């Protein structure tokens, strides 16, 4: 079941977050082709967050992805 900010509930109801090893290309499927524009699709989320000084995907989406 889809949750907030790309998080999903497992069968026990817990919400999981995107892992740092998720690739930008995978996130583009969910957030559109403009996500992390100018960056390679094989870039890891943790690298994107470090480069943009964001602590989470949620923060990145609020600040950078408009």
What does this protein look like?
- The protein has a two-stranded antiparallel ribbon with strand order 1-2.
- With 66 residues, the protein is mostly helical.
- It has a domain at 19-63.
- It has three helices and two strands; from the N terminus they run ββααα.
- Helices cover 35% and strands 6% of the residues.
- It has helices spanning 24-31, 45-52, 57-63; strands at residues 8-9, 15-16.
- Strand 1 (8-9) and strand 2 (15-16) form a beta hairpin.
For the biggest sheet, the summary is: 2 strands, antiparallel
* SSE ordering: EEHHH
Count of individual beta strands: 2
Helix content: 25-40%
What radius of gyration results from the CA coordinates?
A: 12 Å
Low-confidence stretches: none
Broad structural category: mainly alpha
Give the number of helices: 3
Mean pLDDT: 81
First-last Cα distance: 25 Å
> Which of globular, elongated, flat, extended, rod-shaped describes the shape?
globular
Widest sheet: strand order? Answer: 1-2
Beta percentage is 5-15%
């Amino acid at each position: 079941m889809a949750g907030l900010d790309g998080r999903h509930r497992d069968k026990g109801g817990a919400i999981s977050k995107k892992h740092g090893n998720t690739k930008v290309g995978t996130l583009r499927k969910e957030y559109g082709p403009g996500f992390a524009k100018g960056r390679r699709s094989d870039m890891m989320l943790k690298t994107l967050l470090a480069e943009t000084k964001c602590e989470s995907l949620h923060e990145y989406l609020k600040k950078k992805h408009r």
